[in-house]
Amino acid sequence: MSVPATTVTPPLADDLDIVIPTIRNLDFLEQWRSFFQPYHLIIVQDGDPSKTIRVPDGFDYELYNRNDINRILGTKASCISFKDSACRCFGFLVSKKKYIFTIDDDCFVAKDPSGQEINALAQHIHNLLTPSTPYFFNTLYDPYREGADFVRGYPFSLREGVTTAISHGLWLNIPDYDAPTQLVKPLERNSRYVDAVLTIPKGTLFPMCGMNLGFHRELIGPAMYFGLMGDGQPIGRYDDMWAGWCAKVICDHLGLGVKTGLPYIWHSKASNPFVNLKKEYKGIYWQEEIIPFFQSVILPKDCTTPQKCYVELAKLVKEKLGPIDPYFGKLSGEMVTWVNAWNELNPSTDVAAVKNIDAAAPKKK
Amino acid sequence: MSQVTIDRNEIDIVIAAFRSDLTSFLEEWRPIISRFHLIIVQDPDLKEGLKIPNGFDVDVYTKSDIDKLVSASHASMFSGYACRYFGYLVSKRKYIVSIDDDCSPAKDNNGDVVDIVTQHITNLKTPATPLFFNTLYDPYRKGSDFVRGYPFSLRSGVPCVLSCGLWLNLADFDAPTQSLKPELRNSRYVDAVLTVPKNSLMPMSGINIAFDRETVGPAILPALKLAKEGKVRWETMEDVWCGLVVKVVCDHLQLGVKTGIPYVWRNERGSAIDSLKKEWQGVKLMEELIPFFQTLKLSQDAVTAEDCVMEMAVAIKKGMGSKHPELANAAGNMVEWVKIWKEVGSRVLI
């Protein structure tokens, strides 16, 4: 095979940020080095801000701890969770790139059935840069993958697809089970490599896991708020779920696509199911009402941007879910705070320039 | 997860024969299907008698059987690929597994031969989950489960009544696609079965399917005939039409449809380019059918598959019949099918 005369730039090297929430260390990055090093990292340090998080040498990164979050957002910092990986969405907020890939610090490089290491980031990029097909199900999964296509009966007018806004990856080894399932099946491991990417049809909700996720920040970023979780909140481990339900409803409304399937990462750490049960407990009951709510949401036609959609959704959350628990009224308020923070940090050209937020020098070695 | 029993008394394997010598086809499938009852329906246009090897428990139906059972005016409903539906009609068992006669057994990623009967019946005997998407695909498969965030009230699922399998080698592409990419062969074995979500339509391929005849038999029907209907899959849409109908029925009756494994190996047959030369009426038709079927709503009174089909036939005739005579015919065929189904009194033995 011939070697290119000039260096080949990895795809989207200047257009994508990798957001990693962490409370311990980033040693896992060593394994990802060859895949991640060309990209800029945004580290969101949760927990004690006086602790120093060591980033392996050679990575280009910004790091934000709780003090930075408070400083940058001021009173709006209330929307960013503390002591929960939900804080990762702060990284989405401050990024200036078009795409985000987010991964947990206990996720490692997986191998495909042929033994080859999987470049999860490259697969997410491929998923995001090829269309989705939410309006009619293709039985051969993603028709844009090499070796696949649309099947007989697939309408030609739908074969251009729509822009993909979210790429949801999966996990080998420790699967993303809830606490009750973990308690019943503590030894179950996901060893099945399903060689498919598929679009989740319009009108169908799904449980979005944040540990291996890519998305188009410009198109859906304002909807990727990971809610109020962790310290001082009655619920945990529903941050990504919440973002996923909101984002899917908005994607369906705006005609954007959501893919799930490849890439796989190797999830190494099984969290404590008893701790998880306490965190999820309320969520298990609440989701019985939350799901029908999201399934029945209809956004008005004049919601033409993700921000407008999200503000409308926040209103509906307060109205319809508020009666379940005061938490939802609070959450609704913080959803609006989030959108305001988003608009402030990401002013668009047709909005009057907001006064400069002192984003200060990012911590860099 | 409970063990699924594969009971030969519950299953009929239905094959439509387009060639008279079925020896090599049946020998290939012998290890997988010989313990089951076979119903072979001979394409009414096929003049020669069928050659079938020994050792199979088989009933063969020919044009004369079709003419005897249904009136002459309706015998044409069972021509070409649609002759297999006659097999569904006369079956007395609960489950049907049906494949095209140009398929061979496939091998999975471990090199093991795929037992399509066991996999299809397992798909049918475990619940489907159309109301919420499980990112780990079928939660009832060994080694899998519902993921975090999946509502507990939805974890018992709904009965699965249709299992759509896939194809290695010659995939079920349409003629334009296969002509454009003549070398394209499907070599990707995707080790998953998943439920097609509610309100999501899909193109059903008749090449490799199984269904619960007792529950949804009346909706698995021969109805749409293209003007230039042919004997290769590139020249028919009868199964795609059937799939749209049955999915609307399933969504209305809270029943499930799965897609994915098992795979068959589809052998080379025919020429995509030759098929392309025929006027591709079916392709044009799909453009209008999808929006129509997506908005089709059935009444609360439609509580059985028969009810649903009758309502749909009325809606199709009214909504599309005048513009497309072949759809008016299809609607008429749907009504006839339900009538015949009732008359034949198809009842499940066990």
UniProtKB/TrEMBL annotation, chain A:
<dbReference type="Pfam" id="PF03214">
    <property type="entry name" value="RGP"/>
</dbReference>
<protein>
    <recommendedName>
        <fullName>UDP-arabinopyranose mutase</fullName>
        <ecNumber>5.4.99.30</ecNumber>
    </recommendedName>
</protein>
<dbReference type="GO" id="GO:0009505">
    <property type="term" value="C:plant-type cell wall"/>
</dbReference>
<feature type="site" description="Required for activity">
    <location>
        <position position="159"/>
    </location>
</feature>
<dbReference type="InterPro" id="IPR004901">
    <property type="entry name" value="RGP"/>
</dbReference>
<dbReference type="GO" id="GO:0005829">
    <property type="term" value="C:cytosol"/>
</dbReference>
<keyword id="KW-0333">Golgi apparatus</keyword>
<dbReference type="InterPro" id="IPR029044">
    <property type="entry name" value="Nucleotide-diphossugar_trans"/>
</dbReference>
<dbReference type="GO" id="GO:0033356">
    <property type="term" value="P:UDP-L-arabinose metabolic process"/>
</dbReference>
<keyword id="KW-0413">Isomerase</keyword>
<keyword id="KW-0961">Cell wall biogenesis/degradation</keyword>
<dbReference type="GO" id="GO:0005794">
    <property type="term" value="C:Golgi apparatus"/>
</dbReference>
<dbReference type="GO" id="GO:0071669">
    <property type="term" value="P:plant-type cell wall organization or biogenesis"/>
</dbReference>
<feature type="site" description="Required for activity">
    <location>
        <position position="152"/>
    </location>
</feature>
<dbReference type="GO" id="GO:0052691">
    <property type="term" value="F:UDP-arabinopyranose mutase activity"/>
</dbReference>
<dbReference type="InterPro" id="IPR037595">
    <property type="entry name" value="RGP_fam"/>
</dbReference>
<comment type="similarity">
    <text>Belongs to the RGP family.</text>
</comment>
<dbReference type="GO" id="GO:0071555">
    <property type="term" value="P:cell wall organization"/>
</dbReference>
<feature type="glycosylation site" description="N-linked (Glc...) arginine">
    <location>
        <position position="152"/>
    </location>
</feature>
<comment type="function">
    <text>Probable UDP-L-arabinose mutase involved in the biosynthesis of cell wall non-cellulosic polysaccharides.</text>
</comment>
<keyword id="KW-0325">Glycoprotein</keyword>
Automatic annotation (TrEMBL), chain B:
<keyword id="KW-0333">Golgi apparatus</keyword>
<keyword id="KW-0961">Cell wall biogenesis/degradation</keyword>
<dbReference type="GO" id="GO:0009506">
    <property type="term" value="C:plasmodesma"/>
</dbReference>
<dbReference type="Pfam" id="PF03214">
    <property type="entry name" value="RGP"/>
</dbReference>
<dbReference type="GO" id="GO:0005829">
    <property type="term" value="C:cytosol"/>
</dbReference>
<dbReference type="InterPro" id="IPR037595">
    <property type="entry name" value="RGP_fam"/>
</dbReference>
<comment type="similarity">
    <text>Belongs to the RGP family.</text>
</comment>
<dbReference type="GO" id="GO:0005794">
    <property type="term" value="C:Golgi apparatus"/>
</dbReference>
<dbReference type="GO" id="GO:0052691">
    <property type="term" value="F:UDP-arabinopyranose mutase activity"/>
</dbReference>
<dbReference type="GO" id="GO:0071555">
    <property type="term" value="P:cell wall organization"/>
</dbReference>
<dbReference type="GO" id="GO:0033356">
    <property type="term" value="P:UDP-L-arabinose metabolic process"/>
</dbReference>
<protein>
    <recommendedName>
        <fullName>UDP-arabinopyranose mutase 5</fullName>
    </recommendedName>
</protein>
